[in-house]
């Protein structure tokens, strides 16, 4: 009975549910991503009161993800501000289950398309590849993090389209084309990188089809039409959003810096897929940004491209199978990794589809003459190891503390770790724990010239208004960018503590600037006593 494909897939799906079941009780993470993607965007808070620009282009996050945005808005309207997080986590698990079933079906179709004889490619490939991929711990970030609805849906569209293409002779061109268009809309509507869909389909068809039929020629024409839409869409989607430009600016260094970052990104990504033991939400380089430091990763890239070319030319069932995996991994990694847009060098969420490419490549190796049989028990062992590692990784995504404390051990100088943990404790009003983490993080905040506003609130609750005012003045003077919330926390600290301005005219001017900014914010003046208190304090700030 265990030899039946439906039974194998059912057991795999059950294992996935058991591993990810804890996420149904998780909320959102107080990070930039969850806060801006899932919680506070105007088009999520008030869909019908938002403009079509906000609904479709999502200017508040830097690039358009209209389909996840509509989903967030609908769930929030139905289940309430906090109730929908658990529902969304459940949907993420459901999306991953669907994707796993699509991978299982895709590998079966790929095996059927490439096998000249039944013995060419091993019968166990579909369940082995689907299991090693679906249970791989590097995928946990995509499933357990609410922000990544866009990745799950976009990759779902690509997997479904690949399955559709392999079944084109049975399905029929006229029936397939409407589904192709719908899947394309799902791919690019979930994130702009989904525009890669027609190019992946074209590559897959060229690699796996023994002959180009008239039906396939018409299919290629449809793919070319979608590709003609993809290229200008991606350019437009990125160029019209200030958020992308702002994040891109720090990365646009010289050629050596770009190559360094590409190399380090490839190195991180390869290590995380091969040895998924030390996984974190952010990875940063260590040491100097020199081209030499990026050479190992660049060498990995050359090996992958060269290996793909050699496997393609070999023209055997196992080599074409492996080449399909490498091609899929490379084609999906380049757009999804955002190498020139984000300051960090790698993120596990980029590896959802590339990891599948690696596993399909290994599946081809399993069918190699002589040595393939020896790899089967290794793959089976990986399923067990990855299951245990994924279960542990899922628990880390419960909240900011469980997620970011290990990052501090991995990279103690990474200031964002302290920020996320402090903000979590602030939300729970655990003042002692919050003070501990901000004092550990303060040297790193100072190094980055970015002391966050909530340090003032935490100091005010633990050390008193005077200490909070002192750190607030330091932040006002030293921060490269003064956030609106810093003005607010600084003014309220001075008013709560009834702290008079210092005699120095320059410091008085700093306080006066924050006070005047405070008076421009009607949302801060809802408290009837706020405006009179600020206006009464202002004269004392005159030189």
TrEMBL record:
Bilayer-spanning residue ranges: 84-107, 127-148, 168-188, 195-213, 219-237, 295-312, 321-343, 349-368, 375-391
UniProt entry keywords in alphabetical sequence: Membrane, Repeat, TPR repeat, Transmembrane, Transmembrane helix
PANTHER family found in the cross-reference section: PROTEIN O-MANNOSYL-TRANSFERASE TMTC4, PTHR44227
Name of the molecule in the record: Glycosyltransferase RgtA/B/C/D-like domain-containing protein
Organism: Microvenator marinus
């Amino acid at each position: 009975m265990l030899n039946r494909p439906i039974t194998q897939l059912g057991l795999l799906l059950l294992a996935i549910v058991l591993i990810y079941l804890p996420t149904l009780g998780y909320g959102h993470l107080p990070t930039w991503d969850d806060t801006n993607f899932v919680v506070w965007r105007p088009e999520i808070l008030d869909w019908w009161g938002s403009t079509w620009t906000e609904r479709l282009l999502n200017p508040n996050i830097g690039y358009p993800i209209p389909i996840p945005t509509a989903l967030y808005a609908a769930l929030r309207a139905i289940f309430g501000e906090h109730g929908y997080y658990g529902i969304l986590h459940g949907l993420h698990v459901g999306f991953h289950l669907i994707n796993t079933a699509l991978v299982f079906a895709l590998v079966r179709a790929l095996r059927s398309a490439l096998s000249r004889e039944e013995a060419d490619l091993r019968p166990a490939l579909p369940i082995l590849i689907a299991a090693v991929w679906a249970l791989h711990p590097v995928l946990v970030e995509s499933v357990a993090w609410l922000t990544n609805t866009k990745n799950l849906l976009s990759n779902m569209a690509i997997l479904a389209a690949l399955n559709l293409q392999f079944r084109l002779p049975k399905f029929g061109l006229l029936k397939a084309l409407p589904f192709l268009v719908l899947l394309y809309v799902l791919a690019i509507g979930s994130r702009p990188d989904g525009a890669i869909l027609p190019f992946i389909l074209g590559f897959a068809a060229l690699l796996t089809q023994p002959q180009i039929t008239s039906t396939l020629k018409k299919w290629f024409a449809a793919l070319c039409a979608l590709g003609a839409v993809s290229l200008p869409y991606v350019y437009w989607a990125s160029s019209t959003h200030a958020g992308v430009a702002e994040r891109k600016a720090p990365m646009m260094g010289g050629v050596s810096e770009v190559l360094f970052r590409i190399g380090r990104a490839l190195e991180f990504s390869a290590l995380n897929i091969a040895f998924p033991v030390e996984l974190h939400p952010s990875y940063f380089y260590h040491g100097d940004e020199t081209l030499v430091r990026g050479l190992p990763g660049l060498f990995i890239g050359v090996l992958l491209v060269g290996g793909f070319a050699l496997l393609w030319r070999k023209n055997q069932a196992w080599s074409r199978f492996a080449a399909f995996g490498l091609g899929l991994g490379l084609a999906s990694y380049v757009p999804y990794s955002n190498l020139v847009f984000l300051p960090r060098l790698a993120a596990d969420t980029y590896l959802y589809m590339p990891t599948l490419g690696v596993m399909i490549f290994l599946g081809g190796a399993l069918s190699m003459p002589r040595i393939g049989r020896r790899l089967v028990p290794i793959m089976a062992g990986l399923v067990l190891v990855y299951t245990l590692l994924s279960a542990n990784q899922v628990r880390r995504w419960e909240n900011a503390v469980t997620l970011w404390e290990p990052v501090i051990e991995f990279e103690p100088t990474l200031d964002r770790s302290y920020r996320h943990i402090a903000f979590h404790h602030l939300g729970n009003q655990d003042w002692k724990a919050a003070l501990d983490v901000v004092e550990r993080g303060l040297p790193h905040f100072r190094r980055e010239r970015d002391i966050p506003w909530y340090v003032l609130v935490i100091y005010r609750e633990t050390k008193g208004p005077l200490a909070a005012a002192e750190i607030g003045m330091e932040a006002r003077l030293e921060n490269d960018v003064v956030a609106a919330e810093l003005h607010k926390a600084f003014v309220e600290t001075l008013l709560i503590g009834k702290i008079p301005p210092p005699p120095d005219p320059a410091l008085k001017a700093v306080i006066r600037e924050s006070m005047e900014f405070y008076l421009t914010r009607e949302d801060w003046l809802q408290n009837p006593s706020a405006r009179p208190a600020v206006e009464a304090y202002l004269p004392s700030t005159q030189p």
